[in-house]
């Protein structure tokens, strides 16, 4: 018998010919299927990703990582001879749409696992759906801890750094600077959201304990088009290091207005906002030297990073020196976690996969980790890899490796 038990009624999935490149178009309208061809038993994964809407730029980069990950899962004939199929719908950056498309996919297919979208609202909408279905749910691109620690999640696993990891990384990056040249006065722009409050509180606590002066902490609403008051407050407080976790459009707006204000902190970290290529496309040199903490960046080593870079070069790169954007590695990490869990489970039964996720240690491009009781990486295991925009490229500045870059500091005004 196969290592995977196919005795349950798993519907064979027939992929439609005529796909572009490695993509196959399923019989489900609007869906995209990745994998080989022909009719066979499959391990079916459902996903919703923001291919349109305000999060589309970063969503499509993450989807590239998912594609590379499915190629990895299907190397050598699949997982113990079982082909892995990823069926993806566009969630349009909207939680309601996400729930609807996941319902459509799971109604029309025998789904074994669900992969998450980008950002906490979309990820938690997917988690709620998967919990209701009793299916393993793996997601990246969410640092928000509070929704994961309420004790209600049985099937949700997030192989991705959390708020505690990101804020620790901020302190480590600042600590790389010579003590006499290190910024001392910190300003926090707090998004009026659950994760915004969680990040602001963690930054203030972490950096205050480390001896920094948190000179400003002010709140703004998502979709804010005018950051002039916050900029004026930061300048009046003599803020040298500015920290925030805005949505990408908000962060781009804020950075444009900072550049036009005549005031520029020496250090700017915009978690989430600076992740996508859209940051550089919108800002160009005005977006230079801003820090992000996406959990993976080119320059990470070991655990399949070289294989990821090679695979990206063969599948997506348009030039020999092109390197993947940060969310590509983040998505690939999720596929590596899935592969290792399936191999350890020796079954696609949900309980067996969940037990493997609970018990195994995982080795992926973002680091080595195991899951705690809440399905989060154990505290302190992940470094929360952070990158900096340097002349149009996202360069690893933490943790330091033989392939990382030196931190550019201070930001040029």
Give a concise summary.
The protein is of the alpha/beta class and 413 residues long. The protein has 11 helices and 18 strands.
Element layout with pairings:
Layout: E1 13-14, E2 23-25, E3 32-34, E4 39-40, E5 42-49, H1 56-73, E6 83-90, H2 95-108, E7 113-115, H3 120-133, E8 137-138, E9 156-157, H4 163-175, E10 185-191, H5 194-209, E11 213-220, H6 228-236, E12 241-244, H7 248-261, E13 267-270, H8 277-283, E14 291-295, H9 305-315, H10 326-345, H11 350-359, E15 361-364, E16 367-370, E17 385-390, E18 393-398
Parallel strand pairs: 5-6, 5-7, 7-8, 8-9, 10-11, 10-12, 12-13
Antiparallel strand pairs: 1-4, 2-3, 3-6, 14-17, 15-16, 17-18
Helix pairs in contact: 1-10, 2-3, 4-5, 7-8, 10-11
Domain Leucine-binding protein: 42-378
Keywords: Amino-acid transport, Plasmid, Signal, Transport
Organism: Halorarum halophilum
Describe it:
This protein is an alpha/beta fold and 413 residues long. It has two domains: 13-162 and 300-383, Response regulator (Rossmann fold, 3-Layer(aba) Sandwich), CATH 3.40.50; 164-294 and 386-398, Rossmann fold (3-Layer(aba) Sandwich), CATH 3.40.50.2300. Helices cover 35% and strands 20% of the residues. It is built from eleven helices and 18 strands. The strands form five sheets. Strands 2-3-6-5-7-8-9 form a seven-stranded mixed beta sheet, sandwiched between helices. It has a four-stranded parallel beta sheet with strand order 11-10-12-13, with helices on both faces. The protein has a three-stranded antiparallel beta sheet with strand order 14-17-18. Helix 5 (194-209) links the parallel strand 10 (185-191) and strand 11. The model is unreliable at 1-30 and 35-40 (pLDDT under 50).
